[in-house]
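Any chance you'd type out a single protein's sequence alongside its tokenized fold?
>
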Amino acid sequence: MIRSQNLRLLLYGLGIVAIQIILFRHLRIFGAQSDLILIFVLWLCTNKSKTYCLLLAAFLGFFQDAMTDLWGLNLFTKTLLVFILHGYLNRISKNRLIFWQVLLIIYFSALLHNLILFGVSTFSELFSTDYILLSFMLISPLFTSLVGSFLHIVKEDS
């Protein structure tokens, strides 16, 4: 049976996918964009079970793929990332983290996410220039970690 909290998180996730597709897709710095869905999935890993996070990450990744015409890339990447990082994120969530710790955790998670995504996308030859690799591996994780750290600060103050 679907509980109201699970339904609420699912609707939040769909709203975040909509914000990612409508707004953040067009906010680019040197061709890199922030991934709000990744930040939401990482936040879920801190306080939900692994099965729930895997299912929601797969659903949100599939929905993101459907909107960006990248069929299966984000679904696989976000699901594998949750599978790899859930135990660590759930364990460290018991501690109160400061800004730079949150920044580094999100940065390395986003870097791992982009490495997996780039590795999987090489099979489909989606990206063909070295500039995309530089933007994908350096600027995009930094942009994502700055947005996630800002959201962490805003969440902590409220």
The chain has one domain: 4-157.
